[in-house]
Write a structure and sequence with these properties.
Blueprint lengths: L2 H11 L17 E17 L1 E2 L18 E2 L1 E8 L2 E9 L1 E9 H10 L10 E12 L2 E3 L16 E3 L5 E12 L7 E2 L4 E4 L6 E10 L17 E17 L2 E3 L8 E22 L6 E5 L2 E14 L7 E11 L3 E3 L12
Length: 338
């Protein structure tokens, strides 16, 4: 999203809410909840041969210790009964596996975030929260030859006025569990990044005139906007599942680091303004987002066993549904207690 459009959209939501008594806590923060899905393919090396007898070069029989798929072998090669060569081979092939919400939940269970994968789903929650505001500093006009030192315009708000602040995060929700689980440390995804090219870029803002034919401060509360974009390059997706393995006996604890990072691709998304059921409280409404053609790296590192380290190629995409309005998302973003 272009910065100018983003800031403009947030400015339109930074408006007085219903009047609040000075010092009174703001109402519960409204927001939206979107369903999240992703489908990835991890391509890695797999054994391309089978374990062989080092003395004969013949595959080990099933049931023999060490039998089965293998990357490498060392064995003597024979022609008839004559030993003719020592063979050192390494044979690998590519192997693909899928990674989606099910695998993600399974990994979260492994590191103790959840105890069972049944019933959980992944959502993105966007909060349109509140903060008390008494002054709003508008953007300083650019200097000109006629006005080399333009003044900063400051708008005073009445005491007890609250303004919106946006926040978002990823959460696990389960109908049989009261409180959602914040997993923003483990996953992140968005369709717009710092670099790229707009293929489509549409922003429409509508502000009605008053009965006198002028735009007044009160009328700003009626301003609406719609923003749609198609963005080429640098959508972003991340999964990080680092875990510390507890020490056993005299052995030191160690860390397993597992991550997926993807960039690029084609991202589409947008946002618009909306109102809660009270028809007065403004709310930011993210439109459906989708990213395809992302690619990057899968990494698995076990610092207790370097032979188990894995570096693989990962590709795929994700989707985030349009935000469903909720008048109160406090359970996702509880107020901080001093």
């Amino acid at each position: 999203m272009k910065k100018s459009h983003t800031l403009r959209a947030l400015m339109l939501l930074s408006l007085p809410i219903a009047s609040q008594a000075f010092g009174q806590a703001p109402p519960p923060p409204p927001g939206t909840v979107s369903k999240v899905a992703f489908s990835l393919t991890i391509t890695d090396e797999a054994p391309g041969t089978v374990a062989k007898d080092p003395e004969t070069g013949k595959p080990l029989k099933k049931g023999t210790e060490g039998a089965g798929p293998a990357f490498s072998n060392e064995y003597d090669s024979f022609k008839g009964k004559k030993k003719v060569a020592f063979v050192d081979e390494y044979i690998a092939k590519s192997a693909k596996r899928k990674y989606s919400i099910k695998e993600f939940l399974t990994d979260l269970k492994k590191i103790g975030v959840i105890t069972d994968i049944k019933g959980w789903s992944l959502v993105k929650v966007t909060e349109t929260g509140y903060s008390e505001q008494t002054k709003s500093v508008d953007e300083t006009p650019e200097p000109t030859e006629e006005v080399p030192n333009p003044e900063v315009v400051i708008t005073d708000y009445p005491a007890g006025t609250y303004t919106y602040e946006d926040d978002d995060g990823f959460f696990l929700v389960n109908k049989s569990v009261t409180n959602p689980i914040d997993v923003s440390d483990y996953i992140n995804a968005y369709t717009w990044y710092e670099y790229g090219v707009y293929l489509t870029d549409e922003y429409v803002e509508s502000t009605p005139y008053s009965s006198e034919g002028t735009i007044t401060g009160t009328e700003w509360a009626m301003t609406t906007y719609m923003y749609n974009y198609t963005w080429r390059s640098d959508a972003y997706f991340r999964i990080t599942l680092d875990q510390e393995i507890p020490a056993e006996g005299e052995d030191p604890s160690y860390t397993i680091e597992e991550s997926i990072r993807m960039y690029g691709g084609l991202g589409t998304g947008g946002s618009k303004s909306g109102l809660l059921k009270d028809k007065e409280t403004g709310v930011y409404l993210p439109l459906a987002e989708k990213a395809t053609g992302l690619s990057g790296r899968y990494r698995y590192e076990d610092n207790s066993d370097e032979d188990s380290d894995i570096y693989a190629f990962v590709e795929g995409g994700f989707s985030i549904s349009a935000g469903a309005v909720q008048a109160d998302v406090l359970k996702f973003f509880p107020a901080e207690v001093d």
